[in-house]
Specification:
Blueprint (H helix, E strand, L loop, with lengths): L1 H37 L5 H4 L2 H12 E9 L5 E5 L16 E4 L2 E7 L2 E6 L3 E6 L3 E8 L2 E4 L9 E3 L4 E5 L2 E5 L3 E9 L17 H6 L9 H10 L6 H33 L7 H16 L2 H12 L3 H25 L3 H8 L5 H39 L2 H12 L3 H31 L2
Helix pairs in contact: 3-13, 6-7, 6-9, 6-11, 6-12, 7-9, 8-9, 8-11, 9-11, 10-11, 11-12, 11-13, 12-13
């Protein structure tokens, strides 16, 4: 009878475990199905703008040259990325642009020709389609498209936009503009006004002196470092500010949280209310996200790298305080007793009996957070107005030079990789003694 009851009890136990084994995955699947429809994932394909995505992708690895006519003054200018710092001298243009008085003819390649005509008009010769003509008539855009407008043309009463594989053309009341795309980051090394622009590297290194006032290497370095478009010196300083924010915040938090952690550890602070109070302080500091601290501190102290460092410091003080106090609670009392048996004072017991035990954990966590905060400092810098994050945000807001955005992202990735390698090397040196 007892065996039968035990068997029945075992059957019920296994049945509950089987039910739990099926119920948990089933609940997860049901939740994922709910998310699939609640977030309207099937509608993403309809809302996606693949043409804009392709255009953005091309902007990351190429540059565009703007040929712009001011429809009010009639003046035509040519500039790389449309910037004054990348503008060709008045009356000059690349060989694919022909300036002839009131008429400008632009060869976009592959048989695509755009012509700026007098009277705020333009024509676009498109192989396989024909001649597209447009002009400004009063306040409206008038074209020869008729009722059937191709997918690659966007036209309204005030604006015409044409996008083909060879380039883009736009027409408004204020300006007529053509964009021609070329691979590469143009003017990355030297601007148009630099005597070293267009010079091969062999000429700079081994050729005759280009600038009579200085040597080739010194002049080329100065032209690169003070490049007005890419601002390499400013970017390098921004990278340094980002690393400095992470360094000050991380190591400042470690210095502050280590002595406080003793007050939150059970074996060092027997008073329960004191431990409770400090642990709640740690919970509060790390419970508020670093970005929230950034916004609060920026209102209190104003923008700047120091504000970002303080935001990291506050958040990490809470995290380090919790981890250090838990590490202190797990130290070996025998080592402390051994130091105490020599007649050492309390401070010496902590210094030689406690700190060596938690040093590997302390260094490992601090270096890991330093590496992680290097990434976080990029986002924090975008809010506080410091570091590479600020430059990245400014470049993204303008939506003009996406190759510049790519440049900053590449630098951030390289910075994180460098900090990861440095952190790993320091851990091996300081913890393992390699």
């Amino acid at each position: 009878m007892a065996d039968a009851a035990l068997y029945l009890q075992s059957e019920k136990l296994f049945a509950r475990k089987r039910m739990r084994a099926f119920a948990v995955p089933a609940a997860i699947v049901i939740y994922l199905i709910y998310v699939f429809f609640a977030f309207d994932i099937p509608g993403l394909a309809d809302r996606a703008r693949w043409d804009n995505g392709a255009l953005l992708l091309s902007d990351t690895w190429s540059h565009k040259v703007h040929v712009t006519r001011d429809n009010r003054s009639g003046e035509t200018s040519v500039a790389i990325e449309g910037e004054r710092k990348g503008a060709y001298a008045a009356g000059t243009a690349p060989d694919w642009v022909e300036l002839a008085g009131d008429t400008t003819r632009i060869d976009l390649g592959e048989g695509h020709f755009v012509t700026f005509l007098p009277g705020n008009a333009l024509s676009y010769e498109i192989p396989g389609w024909g001649l597209l003509e447009a002009r400004i008539d009063g306040r409206s855009v008038v074209t020869n498209l008729g009722d059937e407008v191709p997918d690659w043309v966007s036209v309204s009463k005030t604006r015409l936009a044409i996008t083909t594989d060879e380039g883009r053309v736009s027409l408004t009341r204020s300006r007529t503009e053509a964009f021609n795309y070329f691979p590469g980051w143009e003017l990355f090394f030297f601007t148009l006004d630099s005597p070293y622009h267009g010079q091969p590297l062999s000429r700079i290194l081994f050729g005759p002196q280009i600038d009579p006032a200085r040597g080739n290497i010194a002049g080329a370095w100065d032209g690169f470092w003070h490049n007005a478009m890419w601002q390499h010196s400013k970017v390098a300083w921004a990278i340094f500010e980002t690393i400095l924010m992470a360094f000050l915040g991380t190591f400042g938090a470690a210095i502050i949280s280590l002595p406080i952690a003793f007050l939150a550890a059970k074996n060092f602070t027997p008073l329960g209310p004191v431990r409770f109070a400090f642990r709640r302080v740690f919970d509060f500091l790390r419970g508020v996200d670093g970005l929230i601290w950034t916004i609060i501190l920026s209102r209190a102290f104003g923008p700047g790298p120091l504000t970002g460092s303080l935001a990291i410091l506050l958040t990490d003080t809470g995290s380090f305080g919790k981890m250090f106090s838990e590490a202190l609670e797990n130290v070996d009392d025998k080592q402390i007793e051994g130091v105490a048996s020599t007649g050492a004072r309390v401070a010496h017991r902590y210094r030689f009996g406690v700190i060596p035990q938690i040093t590997p954990i302390l260094l490992s966590q601090v270096l890991y957070y330093f590496e992680s905060n290097t990434r976080s400092a990029t986002i924090i810098g975008a809010i506080t107005g410091g570091g590479i994050g600020l430059l990245l945000t400014q470049a993204m807001i303008t939506q003009k030079d996406w190759e510049e955005v790519t440049y900053y992202i590449v630098l951030v990735v390289l910075m994180v990789m460098a900090m990861d390698s440095l952190s790993g090397w320091l851990r091996r040196k300081l913890i393992k003694g390699e």
